[in-house]
Amino acid sequence: MVEAVITFGAILTAITALISIFLVKMTSKVSHAGYYPNLFLGLVGILLILVAPIAPKVDFGGAGFGGIGIACMFAAAIGFIISAILDSYKNAEA
Predict the structure, then answer these.
(1) Mean pLDDT of all residues in the chain?
(2) Contact between residue 53 and residue 64 where contact means Cβ atoms under 8 Å apart
(3) Can you tell me whether residue 18 is helix, strand or coil?
């Protein structure tokens, strides 16, 4: 199960990072659109973790709802870091 969660997390991190990089590069300096995919993924992760104890045992790709929720929250955290770094370089006045 751990391997499946790490795989889901890595795939979601790559997808979210690419979307965030694209949105940060293509929007204006005052836009926060680069953070929206990460926010959405974090909320989905929280919802999946909250549903995991209630729902019956569901196994998707070797991980349950809780594992996929943890992978989503991991991907959202890394995506927020990448978006914040790119946004800060975009808004630098140096």
Answers:
(1) 89
(2) no
(3) helix
Residues whose CB is less than 8 angstroms from the CB of residue 59 and which lie 6 or more positions away in sequence, other chains included: none
Token pair 């995506």 in the structure block, residue: 79
pLDDT at residue number 28: 83
Which residue, 62, 71, 67, 84, is CA-closest to 14? 71
> For residues 34 and 84, is the Cβ–Cβ distance under 8 A?
no
In angstroms, rounded to a whole number, what is the distance separating the alpha carbons of residues 92 and 71? 32
N residues, the chain: 94
Q: What are phi and psi of 63, to 5 degrees?
A: -135, 145
Contact 92, 82 (CB under 8 A): no
Residue 15, number of CB atoms within 10 A of its CB? 14
Structure tokens at 1: 């199960």
pLDDT, tens only, 8-26? 999 999 999 999 989 888 8
pLDDT digits (tens, 9 = 90+) for 59-76: 888 888 889 999 999 999
